[in-house]
Write a structure and sequence with these properties.
Layout: H1 2-48, H2 50-61, E1 62-67, E2 74-75, E3 81-93, H3 101-111, H4 117-129, E4 136-137, H5 144-152, E5 160-169, H6 177-180, E6 183-185, H7 188-193, E7 204-206, H8 209-213, H9 215-219, E8 223-229, E9 235-242, E10 250-251, H10 256-266, E11 271-277, E12 282-289, H11 295-298, H12 303-311, H13 320-323, H14 333-342, E13 352-354, E14 357-360, E15 363-366, E16 374-376, H15 378-383, H16 387-406, H17 430-437, H18 443-449, H19 460-471, E17 475-477, E18 489-492, H20 499-513, E19 531-537, E20 559-566, E21 573-579, H21 586-601
Parallel strand pairs: 2-10
Antiparallel strand pairs: 1-8, 2-3, 3-4, 3-5, 6-7, 8-9, 11-12, 11-21, 13-16, 14-15, 17-18, 19-20, 20-21
Length: 605
């Protein structure tokens, strides 16, 4: 039994040894396999995938950041600065490096309690909807105290960086706002249409006016810089920099001194004034009143301020110079008179009797002067602004001749000034009414068209261009705002009898200087000769009633207009003025503008 027990024990021992040996071999094989896998992985990392993983490691250590270009400045004709760039502190947000967007914003609001909750909320929505890799700037200028406070706690805000950048500013505030326009934050729809590489690091773009029209010139091209960071994302050093190409500075034809003088004269009234240099087409003043402060829009205007502008009954956001469309009133009479005598519809010396009205098809078309003007020829019709003369003249001319004669002066077409979204106005015709109103043309409509009423609409800039053509005796020059742009002569209106220019211009001169002229009362003692034409645009029909300014609601009062140029022989300026619903007349405003420019500014230049 003992031998048997001994044999079994030895057998078990042998079996256990074999089992242990198998386990050793298995463990060894497993270790060798793991070692081979490790060696294979190391081989892959060190040789096969070296370039890829080196790039990833460098990407964690070295980042490439865009350098936004400096936006070009805008100057007036005398190098007065109209749009500048001011250094400020703000925050740059890198969404891809932010761990918890919502918590970061809550902590930021706690750290900087003066941040507008409304503006911060809008920015949060904008950042949340933007690309993960697009950097955005907080539309808020940090004070020095706020910048220092954030710098001390910046380690708590991964993905947020305190940066010094340039902010667009408009030193003259609301002066020339409608021509300069403003820059604003790039919205999503704009961003999708832009070339991303050209706007890397930039978060503003021209929205209106010159800022928008000349965006390609003003913007410039971004640069790049490589920076080395530590594990926490802090900058250790800058490795390589390709500087940005700054935008070009541009000089406008505007004279800010004249611009501000006119704005002072208007004193916030609803009005538009354009002053041009007929010989070159340069726009010296471009006034839409009232205006707004474009600085409000640069960082994004608050809802409160925007609603205040929208609800302002004077509608300061409207660019009245290119978008205000007004009945031109009697300011069109010189153009119609020129067409009539040039086409031999009537002789300049032919007289008609004006009893104060024209009776046509059982309707009485009244003259502004109830008792009439008596015997009237072309000169007297312009000087005293006789409506009845033009009523009769229009029936002899017909709407087709009126339309074809006024078209070359630019009525019914954009002037192609270097601004976007210019309105065309309306120069009515048979075909226009058929296309737009689906109706026939009536002679009664021809009658009121002859005094600039009815369907006839023009912008203040169109009137200024037409006046410049008169001053140039038919030469059409493109109006412009960029000083460096060449003078562009479009063509010359073909008037066979050149003396007809002088006949009409002499009548306009007498309008200002003769004792019976409608602008004579405002031009006494004027040291130079000026040609002009007054006008009144009726806002609503009186039918057979009398016009009593004191009894009519203010917003239904007539508009006052004036066009003119001076000096008559060698014109230096042409002017158009429209004052809405006002007791202030346009003629004295225009004459003061001419006197200020010719006597004070021209002598200084």
């Amino acid at each position: 039994m003992k031998n048997k027990h001994r044999y079994q024990t030895e057998g078990e021992i042998y079996f256990q040894k074999q089992l242990f040996r198998s386990r050793i071999y298995f463990a060894l094989a497993f270790c060798i396999l793991l070692l081979l896998i490790l060696l294979g992985r190391m081989t892959y990392l060190q040789w096969i995938g070296y370039n890829h993983y080196q790039s990833m490691a460098e990407g964690n250590r070295i980042s490439v950041e865009p350098l936004p270009p400096v936006r070009g400045r805008i100057y007036d004709r005398n190098h007065a600065l109209l749009a500048d760039n001011q250094p400020i502190f703000t925050l740059k947000f890198s969404k891809d490096k932010m761990e918890n967007l919502n918590k970061s914003f809550i902590d930021l609001q706690t750290l900087l309690p003066n941040l507008s909750e409304e503006r911060l909320s809008k920015f949060y929505d904008r950042l949340n909807a933007s690309s993960r890799y697009r950097q955005l700037y907080l539309p808020y200028t940090l004070s020095e105290q706020e910048a220092a406070r954030f710098a001390a706690h910046s380690y708590q805000f991964p993905g947020m960086t305190l940066v010094a950048k340039l902010k667009r500013t408009y030193p003259f505030k609301d002066s020339a706002a409608h021509v300069l326009g403003y820059v604003g934050k790039i919205n999503q729809s704009e961003y999708e249409q832009l070339e991303e590489s050209s706007y890397a690091g930039t978060d503003v773009i021209g929205k209106l006016g010159i800022e928008k029209y000349y965006e390609p010139l003003l913007h410039g091209q971004p640069g790049i810089q490589q920076i080395e960071t530590n594990a926490r994302g802090r900058v250790i050093r800058k490795l390589e920099t390709i500087p940005a190409t700054p935008g070009k500075d541009i000089q406008l034809t505007l004279d800010i001194r004249l611009q501000r003088y006119i704005e002072t004269l208007l004193d916030g009234k609803k009005a538009a004034v354009v002053v041009t240099e007929p010989e070159t087409g340069e726009i010296l003043a471009f006034v839409s009143s009232p205006a707004y402060d474009p600085n409000l829009f640069v960082d994004g205007i608050s809802q409160k301020n925007y609603q205040a502008l929208l609800n302002n009954p004077k509608r300061p956001l409207i660019n009245r110079v290119i978008n205000g469309q007004y009945p031109p009133g009697s300011t069109v009479k010189p153009f119609i008179a020129l067409a009539a005598i040039e086409n031999d519809i009537i002789s300049p010396n032919t007289e008609i009797h004006d009893p104060g009205f024209l009776e046509y098809q059982d309707h009485r078309y009244r003259d502004w002067k109830r008792r009439g003007h008596g015997l009237v020829d072309m000169r007297k019709a312009i000087v005293e602004s006789c409506d009845t003369y033009f009523y009769k003249l229009s029936l002899d001319m017909g709407i087709d001749l009126i339309h074809s004669s006024l078209t070359p002066f630019g009525f019914g077409h954009i002037t192609k000034v270097d601004l976007q979204n210019e309105s065309t106005g309306i120069l009515p015709s048979r075909s226009w009414k058929r296309n737009v109103k689906n109706d026939d043309w009536y002679n009664g409509e021809t009658i009121i068209t002859s005094i600039g009423q009815g369907f006839f609409l023009a912008t203040p800039l169109q009137l200024a261009k037409a006046t410049s053509i008169l001053a140039n005796r038919g030469e059409i020059i493109q109006p412009r705002l960029l000083k460096s742009a060449p003078t562009f002569v479009i063509k010359k209106i073909a008037i066979e009898k050149t003396q007809n220019w002088e006949r009409v211009i002499q009548a306009m001169e007498d309008t200002v200087h003769s004792i019976h002229g409608t602008a004579h009362a405002y031009a006494r003692g004027l040291p130079f000769k000026m040609a002009g034409k007054t006008g009144t645009a009726q806002v609503f029909s009186l039918n057979e009633g009398e016009y009593n300014e004191d009894e009519i609601t203010k917003n239904l009062r007539d508009h006052s207009l004036f066009i003119g140029f001076a000096p008559v022989d060698k014109p230096k300026i042409a002017i158009s003025v429209i004052i809405e619903n006002s007791t202030t007349k346009a003629a004295p405003v225009a004459i003061k503008i001419a006197k200020y420019y010719l006597e004070e500014l021209s002598n200084e230049d």
